[in-house]
Design brief:
heteroheptamer; A mainly alpha (500); B mainly alpha (89); C mainly alpha (117); D mainly alpha (158); E mainly alpha (772); F mainly alpha (130); G mainly alpha (138); A: 500 residues; mainly alpha; two-stranded antiparallel ribbon; 22 helices; 78% helix; D: 158 residues; three-stranded antiparallel beta sheet; 5 helices; 3 strands; 60% helix; 11% strand; elongated; binds sodium ion
Chain lengths: 500, 89, 117, 158, 772, 130, 138
């Protein structure tokens, strides 16, 4: 059964992007088209999700060539969830961008490229073909290159060189891994791969190949010791772009890892150990990195790394509970990290800086805004019953269950450091008196109310979503559990892709 | 017989020519020497492809030869353009 | 012949990485291109090898009558080549831009903004 | 006008040849395509008439071919013997050819003849600078080239 | 009941959004909130007295085993009464104490949040639910302690409190999760139905360890105690509330709650006795050196908490009853003393006991409250404190031989020191004459009844319960004790036990304490001693560790994130080689059967050789242009290789793209400076080795993949159907535009984006002054 | 037929070989350029001719003609472009060169070439590769 | 860089190369070639022109900026894949004319797809190369 609905979230962004190229440099038209595109994407994504939820798994065999011969697009709960999250985060960033992004950037394709980026993400989440996944990855990468360098000044460019170099290296490793996998199995369809990988005589080679995939995705998802590009670049682009990057980009790597390491390869003990060891070091490195940062953007960059550790750790534990927790964590993380960077953008607008030493007094001046941001921060820290807390239960549970005490220690350490860092940041940025009124004027208050609203609304919206994730955790848990079930038992996926 | 002659007579000689040209490429001494060597190597490549198409009896390879011929030109022009602009400095 | 290609793959990967480990931005790019070439040959080698037999159905037939090279890796490489062309050309321009801003080809000088305490 | 027509015909022919399809429709398709392409580049037109002089062309081609082989052998001999006999030099060659097409044709032909290579044309299109490998007598070279090549070529082209 | 628990949160929410209403006089009304909750729970007394357990359950996150399960038994009731009862008084007190404060509404919001969390904590019947409320108390106390957020000390203390209790929280979570795994439930009620189960489990030790870290950090046990004195930076009502009845007792509550499940094990008993015992004496000793009223109270609180932990650790019937009673005793007199301190601070501007005196002349009623509290604290007969102390001695005396002789003196000493501290706080400021510095009279001439009534009530209660001990006993203490003990304890509280050893000890305590009070004045220890004490104090150690961690983090991060791209790439590559190389060489059989390989022909070899040499040239040439021309040659050779292997499309594209890339390179290199003649030989050698290993590894993996047979069904499908189904003869092209057309579609978009990027990168010129 | 093909390819290959030797042996750049341009073109012409003869198919012949035609147009042009660049960038002539009438005819700034005049302005110094 | 010879040669090469590119594009389905290589050859023709005549002349020749080719081509190949969806088939399902056309053979959606690719590639290559040339001339 082929269902074209599957591809519509991709098309929504594609068409929007094409229209935006036609409307190059007409800023206002672009704003409208872009917002419309985001809304369409959101509606289509939600529709896709509800349909997927009811039907179980939807497939679309592109070109009418049935799997494994053509490229199959698959929407299972995992994919659909990611598509919805992308749409939500995308819409929020989209609204935020209409005010926060400079005119120069808008005139030079900011909107078009960001729609391409979102399209790439949707494609990556929906494809059922490993090579096609590579191609979508490249879309995302090249878009991120462009966004990162758009109207960039020196620091941005310096960061971009490193970002580009390491991401291209990652792509090469990924491509190499695909090639070897093809050499071993003769197929590229992920469901088919799942079947064929089992039949390979030299099991050891499978493990080696899976590690190649791990390295490729590991670089993209910023796992220790492959994460270097992230701290060198993520703090440089403007907030709206950083929000997309921080919220969605690294998660694409995690998604890919989750897909390959559940559907294609079931990690053997060695791989599990590798994943767990990397997770421990990632948690540790991210936490330590964030500890001393005086720029909140840099601090958050390291926290992204730190929190990737939770997901990789859960993946390494590879129990039902852990996988469900990882999914939950991802859902939470995408929303919260996106919002985190948007909120930082507002702070930057208000104070003209993101350096803790030059910030302060926000609580005094903007109590409601502060409260809003507190929700974001404490969601990220995982203060119960906010969203970041729930997955930790599962992660703690599995690590205790699997006797991975070191991992547990790392989880605790990372949670503690996050708590400490955020509390300290809070005390510095919000509680402390403003050390010296900055020379730059407060851009935020200079904006007309309408524009202020456009900046605040997405932050409020995402905060509400994260509140929902926290307080309505049961619904998210049901979704996560279903996804985890399908990850452990891939039969359903295989049936849907190969037999219908 | 034709096949063997081409395989063991012509292609090796073309290959030896390629080696000679490549030696010039390595020796230089000027960049333009290298550019000329490259251009010549492409020409030898065209020859090799033509012979190879006979050997394999597939005329499809001639398309490659055609593209090579078309495009080698652009490379030479680009290099001389660049070197001349640089000389202008 | 496969041995030679395997050697070549190794060489290209080695050279690519070696160049990426240099200080020069230009070498970095050259390294990436070499890596890309290595990956392409690697993909190529993963198909069924058939020398001199392109996967083009003869004019007077509708299916293959003799051996043919595996078309899948070929099409994958085509896609990969094109993609890396896109990425590489962007990277080349980026290099130019960075050079314009920093007046240096030295990667080591590009960390002014990375360390903060 | 004629030149464009000729060019168009030529393109049509190339098209038919390339596709290897000699049908009537293909011919017209090629013609239309050629017409379209020429239309694109119409701004670059010059207005010179060309007459096809078949016998002259054939004769010229034979001569050219003969020269080519001869010179090539000369170069080959020089190369495989250890000592060089050549006396290279750059010669300033005054042109009779005036328009760009003529000059280009001429210089291509001179370049393709072994032993000579066009280095450049002066900005006012009056002089060619030719690198010559076996330059025994400068004036003799200029005269020979004028007689054997340029004049014959111009006869064909004009 | 859920409304009662959540009302705190709702109030906080309302205050956050419409708090301006309650900044002024209306703030008094907020006190009705805890009062009405108090009243609500009064209705449950009959049931509790009858020994019933009341449970409520609301579905929340069944998938995680977390539901809003609440359970009201004696223990919970005891705490609920303290939280809401003392809470109500604090609310009223604060209305006056912080009158006119700019952010009074925020204060009440935090306080309500805190109260709600505490209520939830003591009522929750689900371990994870306990944890949730536990964390909420940490966070809300963070805001309360840091309420004066313009004060750096205040911020620092809040952070410290959060760090310690927050960190403990994560351990607590681990403990609960482990309990959950072991017992297959998060419901305390269900766990209590099989009380002995956990003790026999292998995970018992770990559960205990995690639980202790959690509760000790909250209840300020050594070595986590030091956040508590720091937390005195909070406004006094907060200190009174947090440290007498609520926050710090949360840890005690936890131990008490899980006592039936986990006690009766050497690990439990010994750890608690040692920690509690050490903490109580350690803090008591510290308290007598302090001159700041709040510090005195802080250390005496820590000591009292130690005493409670100690009692729970002993775990006998006596000890448990003693603990239950002492929770109440301590809450009453400690809250009183704090409130009095607040009044003194408020009216005199100082808390230094050396500068205070004779205040009974100003505030006789407050002095009365202080006296009552001090007496209760001292355990003077006919106060509730007397009964508490009695029970403690009973408890220590009823242990086994060895303990009897070691524990009893410990308890006595502690009590003597505590008595001293209590007198200093409750009596000393009011005794004697008014010192010079206070001759100007109180800062606020008329003392609001809202300030003095609450301590008087609390102090009075201490005496009231002393006269009628069966009232609290019947209502709550015996039931609380039963809850802690795990089975019913019948041991009524009595005013008078007759003449026995216990009475003797009590008398000795009082006499010795009073003597100490009159004979000893707090004096500062010598500088050296202080230094060493300071250095080894957990607070200093923690700060030292914190500082070192920060330093380590700095160097660790700087070493890894050096800013040098090549070191990043090196790390990544080495990791790849190490990981995959290890896996590859340790498992894969390296033997290769090469019989199926095609033979090598001369002209093929030549192309190969040229590629190799060109590659090496690219790598090692010092001329950038040479490198680029070599790249072209590599491209050409690869093109030829593709031709040899029957891939004309590939050859064409490879060559075209290569030429274009070269053209681009050439255009860009225009104006670039020379290569740096760089890096020393050693570095080159190292990089070379890494690069070679990388290449070798990839080669070997490729070889292995090459010789492993694969199913080529898909290629065959394409070949068979290219013409029949997809109407094309060039199979590669058919794959590109049809079978795998989606790839190509996406690929064109990659190009599009790249082109747009290049366009914008070059056309959009930003000046360094432009805003972001 | 096979003989003709063999002969043609042999001649073509020989020309290419000679040119390759020329490229190695010739003492200055202009001589090397001069040798390669035409020998390669001629050699390739023979080889392509042989190929056309082998296939004897209209489409192949057309392709071959296209290739030859293209080479005939482009080879001299690129020779000219490279040659002038070489001269301009100050490539040294062989010591046996007997005449250089191009000397001093280039305007250093604009690169425009005069037909006359003996402006002795110096040539640009050799710009060789870094 | 002005060269009479190059200019004249380009005059003849440009149409030839363009013709060639269309040839390569159309026959891609049956023999080597296709939209991608075709597009590259076409762009090379224009690049050559820009080398000979300078960028401005080439841009005049093209009439529309090369950047505008990109969305047009994308739209074309996108639509060729989408149209079958209106018939309820999967995205990119091949649709073919029943009768072969002269020259091209069977016309199908794949052809339009390839033409779209062709146009995109021209747009992309020229955008990149022209932008960079312009920035050099500055
Ligand atoms: Na392609
Ligand atoms: Na294989």
């Amino acid at each position: 059964m082929t269902d074209n609905l599957l591809i519509l979230p991709i098309f929504a962004h594609l068409l929007t992007a094409i229209l935006l190229i036609f409307a190059w440099s007409h800023i206002n038209i672009q704003r409208v088209i872009s917002l419309f595109g985001h809304f369409m994407a959101l509606i289509l994504s939600l529709h896709l999700f509800s349909k997927t939820w009811k039907a179980g798994i939807l497939t679309m065999q592109a070109g009418g060539w049935k799997a494994p011969f053509g490229i199959t697009f698959v929407s299972d709960t995992l994919s659909a969830t990611f598509v919805v999250l992308t749409a939500i985060a995308g819409l929020a960033v989209g609204i935020f961008s209409t005010v926060s992004v400079t005119k120069a950037r808008m005139q030079f394709g900011y909107f078009a490229i960001s729609h391409f980026l979102l399209m790439g993400l949707n494609g990556a989440f929906l494809t059922g073909d490993i090579f096609n996944l590579y191609v979508w990855f490249e879309i995302v990468i090249i878009s991120s290159f462009v966004l990162m360098t758009l109207a960039g000044k020196k620091p941005q460019m310096e960061g971009a060189i490193k970002y580009v170099a390491m991401n291209m290296l990652a792509s090469t490793v990924f491509l190499t891994a695909i090639a070897i996998l093809y050499g071993l199995t003769g197929t590229l369809n992920m469901a088919d791969l799942s079947l064929k990988v089992v039949q390979i005589e030299k099991k050891e080679l499978v493990s080696v190949t899976s590690l190649l995939f791990f390295i490729g995705f590991g670089i993209k998802s910023a796992v220790f010791p492959l994460y270097f590009w992230l701290p060198s670049s993520y703090h440089t682009p403007p907030s709206a772009i950083a929000a997309t990057f921080g919220g969605l980009l690294t998660k694409m790597g995690v998604y890919a890892m989750m897909r390959t390491f559940t559907l294609i390869f079931v990690p053997d003990a060695f791989t599990q150990h590798v994943l767990i060891a990397c997770a421990i070091m990632t948690l540790f490195t991210g936490a330590l990195g964030a500890l001393n940062k005086t720029s909140i953007r840099r601090m958050f960059s390291y926290l992204i790394i730190c929190h990737i550790g939770f997901m990789i750790g859960g993946l390494g534990l590879h129990t039902h509970v852990a996988l469900a927790a990882v999914v939950f964590y991802l859902i939470h993380d995408i929303i919260v990290k996106t919002n985190l960077f948007l909120a930082t953008g507002i702070i930057h607008k208000i104070r003209g800086s993101t350096d803790i030493r030059r910030l302060g007094g926000l609580y005094e001046e903007y109590p409601k805004l502060s409260l809003l941001m507190a929700i974001i921060f404490f969601s990220m820290v995982g203060i119960p019953p906010l969203s970041g807390f729930w997955p930790k239960i599962g992660l703690f549970q599995s690590s205790l269950d699997q006797r991975s005490y070191l991992l547990l220690a790392a989880f605790i350490l990372a949670s503690f450091f996050t708590l400490y860092i955020i509390a300290k940041m809070w005390s510095e940025v919000f509680w402390k008196d403003l050390p010296k009124r900055p020379e730059e004027t407060n851009e935020f208050t200079e904006l007309p109310l309408f524009k202020q609203t456009l900046l605040i609304v997405p932050v409020v919206g995402l905060a509400l979503v994260s509140l929902y994730i926290g307080l309505g955790a049961e619904n998210i848990m049901i979704i996560s559990n279903r996804i985890a079930t399908n990850m452990i038992d891939t039969g359903y996926y295989l049936d849907a892709v190969l037999n219908k | 017989m034709l096949n063997n002659y081409l395989l063991f007579g012509i292609l090796p000689v073309l290959s030896i020519s390629a080696i000679l040209v490549f030696i010039r490429f390595l020796k230089g001494p000027y960049t333009l020497d290298r550019v000329v060597s490259l251009d010549f190597l492409i020409n030898i490549g065209i020859g090799i492809i033509a012979i190879y198409s006979i050997v394999t009896d597939h005329s499809a390879f001639l398309d490659v030869a055609m593209i090579l011929a078309l495009i080698a030109f652009l490379g030479s022009i680009a290099f001389s353009y660049y070197l001349e602009q640089r000389g202008k400095r | 012949m496969e041995y030679l290609l395997i050697f070549l793959i190794g060489l290209l990967y080695s050279s690519g990485i070696y160049l990426m480990l240099r200080k020069s931005m230009v070498k970095l790019l050259l390294g990436l291109i070499l890596l890309g070439n290595g990956a392409n040959i690697l993909i190529f080698l993963m198909g069924d090898i058939a020398k001199g037999q392109p996967p083009i159905i003869p004019r007077d037939a509708s299916i293959f009558t003799q051996m043919y090279a595996d078309p899948v890796p070929q099409s994958l490489i085509l896609t990969a080549i094109v993609i890396s062309f896109g990425l590489q050309s962007f990277a080349i321009i980026l290099l130019k831009r960075v050079y314009q801003m920093t007046k240096s080809d030295n990667l080591d000088t590009l960390n002014t903004h990375e360390i903060d305490i | 006008m004629i030149r464009q027509f000729m060019l168009n015909l030529m393109l049509t022919f190339v098209w038919v040849a390339l596709t290897g399809d000699l049908s009537f429709v293909n011919f017209w398709f090629g013609f239309a395509l050629g017409f379209f392409i020429l239309y694109i580049k119409e701004k670059n037109d010059g207005d010179v008439r060309y007459f096809v002089r078949v016998p002259k062309i054939i004769g010229f081609m034979l001569y050219f071919f003969y020269e080519m082989i001869k010179a090539n052998l000369q170069v080959a001999y020089d190369l495989i013997t250890p000592k060089f006999f050549m006396k290279p030099g750059i010669v300033k060659y005054p042109l009779s050819a005036r328009n760009e097409f003529e000059i280009t044709m001429l210089s291509n032909i001179i370049s393709l003849t072994p032993g000579t290579l066009i280095l450049d044309v002066s900005a006012d299109n009056t002089v060619l600078y030719i690198h010559v490998m076996y330059l025994k007598d400068r004036d003799k070279f200029v005269r020979r080239t004028k007689e054997k090549i340029e004049n014959r070529l111009l006869e064909i082209l004009r | 009941m859920i409304l009662a628990v959540l009302s705190g949160f709702i109030a906080a929410l309302i205050l956050a959004f419409s708090g301006k209403l309650f900044r002024g006089r209306l703030s008094v009304l907020l006190g009705l909130l805890p009062l009405s909750i108090f009243n609500y729970f009064l209705y449950f007394f009959p049931d509790i007295s009858a020994g019933k357990v009341i449970t409520f359950s609301y579905r929340w996150i069944p998938s995680l085993g977390i539901n809003l399960d609440f359970r009201l038994d004696g223990l919970s009731m005891l705490f609920v009464m303290l939280i809401t009862g003392i809470g109500a008084l604090i609310y009223f007190y604060a209305a006056s104490y912080l009158e006119g404060h700019k952010y009074l509404d925020r204060f009440y919001a935090y306080l309500s949040l805190f109260m709600g969390s505490m209520l939830g904590l003591v009522l929750a019947d689900n371990t994870l639910l306990i944890f949730i409320f536990w964390e909420l108390t940490s966070i809300s106390s963070f805001f309360l302690i840091g309420f004066n957020n313009d004060n750096a000390e205040s911020r620092k203390s809040a952070l410290m409190a959060l760090a310690i209790t927050g960190c403990g929280g994560f351990f607590l979570l681990a403990s609960f999760v482990l309990m959950g795994i072991t017992t297959q439930t998060y419901s305390i009620g269900q766990m209590l139905s099989a009380p002995g189960f956990l003790k026999d489990q292998p995970a018992y030790g770990l559960i205990l360890f995690f639980l202790f870290v959690g509760s000790f950090s909250k209840s300020a046990q050594f070595p986590f105690h030091f956040w508590l004195p720091g937390a005195m930076k909070a406004p006094t009502p907060v200190s009174a509330y947090l440290h007498s009845a609520t926050m710090v007792k949360a840890g005690i509550y936890l131990l008490a709650r899980f006592s039936p499940l986990l006690s009766d094990h050497l690990l439990w008993t010994n750890t608690l006795m040692i920690t509690g015992g050490f903490t109580m004496i350690y803090a008591a000793v510290h308290s007598i050196f302090k001159k700041d009223l709040k510090s005195i109270l802080a250390y005496s609180t820590i000591s009292a908490l130690g005493l409670l932990v100690f009692l729970i650790g002993i775990g006998t019937r006596y000890a448990i009853v003693a603990a239950a009673a002492f929770i109440l005793v301590h809450a009453l007199y400690k809250a009183t003393l704090f409130l009095i301190t607040g009044i003194i601070d408020h009216e005199t501007g100082t808390r230094d006991i050396d500068k205070l005196g004779g205040l009974r002349k100003w505030f006789p009623l407050v002095a009365l409250a202080g006296l009552l509290a001090a007496l209760s604290n001292a355990g003077v007969p006919l106060t509730f404190g007397f009964i508490g102390k009695d029970l403690i001695y009973e408890a220590t005396l009823h242990t086994q031989d060895f303990f009897r002789y070691s524990l009893t003196p410990l308890a006595v000493t502690t009590n003597i020191l505590l008595l001293y501290a209590g007198f200093n706080a409750g009596i000393k400021p009011f005794a004697g004459s008014i010192p010079e510095n206070l001759s100007k009279g109180p800062l606020h001439p008329s003392l609001s009844p809202l300030l003095w009534i609450p301590p008087l009530i609390l102090g009075g209660m201490g005496v009231f319960f002393g006269f009628l001990p069966y009232v609290p006993d019947q209502l709550v203490i015996s039931h609380a004790a039963s809850s802690i003990y795990g089975s019913y304890i019948f041991m009524p509280l009595k005013i008078w036990h007759g003449f026995n050893l216990t009475l003797l000890l009590s008398a000795f305590t009082i006499i010795a304490g009073v003597a100490l009070y009159f004979l000893y004045r707090p004096a500062t220890a010598s500088a050296a001693t202080q230094y060493w004490l300071q250095w080894f104090s957990p607070q200093h150690l923690t700060e030292w560790v914190g500082e070192k961690t920060r330093l380590f983090a700095y160097h660790y991060t700087k070493t890894l994130q050096s800013g040098y791209l090549r070191s990043y790439i090196l790390t990544i590559t080495v990791f790849l080689i190490g990981l995959i190389g290890y896996r590859f060489f340790s498992t894969v059989d390296l033997r290769v059967n090469t019989s199926e390989f095609t033979e090598i022909r001369f002209f093929e070899f030549v192309v190969f050789a040229i590629t190799v040499v060109a590659t090496i040239t690219t790598v090692f040439t010092n001329s950038r242009l040479t490198a680029i021309v070599s790249m072209s040659i590599i491209g050409l050779s690869i093109c030829l290789i593709f031709v040899y292997y029957g891939a004309p499309d590939l050859a064409m594209t490879q060559f075209t793209i290569d030429t274009l890339t070269v053209v681009l390179f050439v255009l860009v290199l225009y104006r670039l400076p020379q290569y740096l003649i760089n890096s020393n030989r050693k570095m080159k050698l190292r990089d070379g080795l890494v690069a070679l290993s990388f290449g070798t590894l990839i080669s070997l993996i490729t070889l292995q993949a090459l010789i492993s047979p694969a199913n080529k069904e898909i290629s065959r499908f394409y070949a068979d159907n290219a013409y029949l189904l997809a109407k094309g003869k060039n199979v590669v092209n058919v794959i590109l535009v049809d079978f795998r057309g989606a790839d190509t579609m996406v690929e064109t978009m990659v190009l599009t984006i790249a082109a747009l990027g290049v366009y914008s990168l070059l056309k959009l010129n930003v000046k360094p002054t432009d805003k972001d | 037929m096979e003989i003709i093909i063999m002969a043609m390819t042999s001649v073509g290959t020989l020309f290419i070989l000679i040119a390759a030797i020329g490229l190695i042996r010739m003492p200055d750049f202009f001589l090397r350029l001069s040798v390669t341009i035409k020998a390669a073109t001629l050699g390739l012409g023979f080889i392509m001719g042989g190929t056309a003869l082998y296939f004897l198919e209209f489409s192949v012949t057309a392709k071959v003609i296209a290739i030859i035609f293209f080479l005939l147009i482009t080879a001299p042009v690129s020779g000219h472009m490279i040659g002038r660049t070489a001269y301009f960038t100050g490539m040294k002539l062989w010591k046996g060169t007997i005449l250089d009438e191009l000397k001093g005819k280039y305007d250093r700034k604009t690169h425009s070439l005069t037909s006359d005049g003996d402006d002795p302005s110096e040539r640009t110094p050799p710009v060789d590769e870094l | 860089m002005q060269s009479t010879i190059l200019k004249t040669a380009t005059n003849y090469l440009l149409p030839l190369l363009l013709l060639f590119s269309v040839f390569i594009l159309l026959r891609g389905h049956y023999e080597s070639g296709g939209g991608f290589v075709g597009g590259l050859v076409a762009s090379i023709a224009f690049v050559l022109h820009s080398f000979a005549y300078g960028l401005e002349r080439t841009q005049k020749l093209l009439k529309y900026p090369p950047k505008s080719f990109i969305p047009a081509g994308l739209l074309l190949s996108f639509m060729s894949g989408v149209l079958p969806m209106f018939g309820g088939k999967a995205y990119m399902t091949g649709v073919w004319s029943s009768e072969p056309l002269p020259v091209i053979g069977l016309v199908g959606s794949a052809l339009f797809f390839d033409i779209g690719v062709f146009i995109v590639v021209i747009g992309v290559t020229l955008t990149i190369l022209f932008t960079i040339s312009e920035s050099i001339d500055q």
